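Hello again,

I reread your note about wanting to compare the complex against the isolated chains. To keep things tidy I'm splitting this into two emails, and this first one only covers the full assembly. Below are the input lines as submitted, including protein chains and any nucleic acid or small-molecule components. They are followed by the predicted structure of everything together. The single-chain runs will come separately.
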Amino acid sequence: ENVLTQSPATLSLSPGERATLSCRASQNISTYLAWYQQRPGQAPRLLIYDASNRATGVPARFSGSGSGTDFTLTISSLEAEDFALYYCQQRSTWPPAWTFGHGTKVEIK
Amino acid sequence: QVQLVESGGGLVKPGGSLRLSCAASGFTFSDYYMTWIRQAPGKGLEWLAYISTSGNTIYYADSVKGRFAISRDNGKSSLYLQMNSLRAEDTAVYYCTRNFRLAFDIWGQGTMVTVSS
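Full-complex prediction:
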């Protein structure tokens, strides 16, 4: 089973600061990684797919990078609505399964 | 607009059954693979079940295999999750999602399922 480990668990930053979130896979997953944002009481929202492609409507301050086992989600300048929970996700080819990391909470410092 | 709306959640006793529905609109439902995902209170996201466009290919997470059944009706643009032998640990918000490449690009608002005596 391919496990995704996100770090840190919590990131305390101020608006305008840069956020760097990490997701590490236990096995090589090429660029088959996605990132989601979840605000309290809301469903998750796709931000990034295939490691570095922004989903429709996602602001340019969000960017994804990485391949293999190490991936990063960067928010270049935090805005008030960016303080939320972020999950990474990958798909295993066999047996077919989709797994999520445990999440990183970005909170206001 | 593109939308998924779940229904059918509620309170059920351990060992009971429940059927969730998801109504899709704003896109050609039959063109997309679909998936159910859940989130227990205060916990992370857990993939449950996947169904291909025709319904011929289905995958389940080990945690629900043999108890849950995913199905779809393309004529009604609807996705379903039949949940049997429910346990307390199945308590969660259940999301209907649309597959996009290896991710999920559209999510419903979720429906809460509570398993308790």
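For quick reference: The first strand of chain A starts at residue 4 and ends at 7.

B.
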